[in-house]
Amino acid sequence: MDIRDVLQPFVDSKEDCVIYAVGTGMLIARITEVGDGWIRLDEKDSESIMLIRNIVRVRSYPKNDKGKKKAIFT
Predict the structure, then answer these.
(1) How far is the C-alpha of 68 from the C-alpha of 62, rounded, in Å?
(2) Exposed (0-12), middle (13-18) or buried (19+): which is 19, by Cβ within 10 Å?
């Protein structure tokens, strides 16, 4: 299984994701593109590229029963 296939649902959903990475900790951003060994992240006011090998975990932003974003505790 290729990492691009695993990350593709996050790109297609166009919703915020919680990305845990080595060195940077936790990021809340939207994954807009997956390349060969990198991902493009769209944050509120900036855009960045992160190496896939630095990513520990990716999950969709949790929501409550009403569809509002929940608080995340690290």
Answers:
(1) 9
(2) buried
Is the Cβ–Cβ distance between 69 and 59 less than 8 Å? no
Whole-angstrom distance, CA of residue 62 vs CA of residue 40: 21
Under a CB-based contact definition with an 8 Å cutoff, are residues 38 and 53 in contact? no
Q: Which pLDDT belongs to residue 32? A: 93
pLDDT along the chain (74 residues), means of 10: 86 89 91 92 91 91 73 68
Q: What does CATH list as the number for 3-60?
A: 2.30.30.100
Does the pTM surpass 0.85? The reply is no
